[in-house]
Amino acid sequence: MSMSFERYMLDMVQPMRDELTRIGFQELRTPEEVEEKLPNAKGTALVVVNSVCGCAAGQCRPGVAEALRHDVTPDHLFTVFAGQDKEATAKAREYFAPYPPSSPSIALMKDGELVYFIERHQIENRSAAEIAADLTGAFDRFCR
């Protein structure tokens, strides 16, 4: 009995996807979904580029979850999954210029324009609380 690699990966990453969808994120799994949502999101949108790495699990996703308990939060929550939904992730990254591809990463957009970005190197070796503090500062600045 063998399992395809694709099926195996889907099963492995589902809990990582669920960490964000459980707290209200909408997955954008195709380039078309990204094109429909990101440029047309009125107000503010938080976009998390999710990944399977340890810093996504230990710092990024927990930091995002903590930040969303703040009294000021974005209007929309979206996520793409690097390495899994490759075309959707590539399309989302087009909106994050001038920043290079980074997984995980966190973008805050306002009326379809990037206003704040946290790259992987700003996630690695930092605590979830520090990331949450960065995000809540950005929420206070851009989401009011």
UniProtKB/TrEMBL annotation:
Pfam family, one: Disulph_isomer
Entries under InterPro entries matching the protein: BrxB/BrxA
Transmembrane segments annotated in the record for this chain: none
Assigned protein family: Belongs to the bacilliredoxin family.
Entries under NCBIfam families matching the protein: YphP_YqiW
Name this polypeptide is given: UPF0403 protein YphP
Organism encoding this protein: Paenibacillus cisolokensis
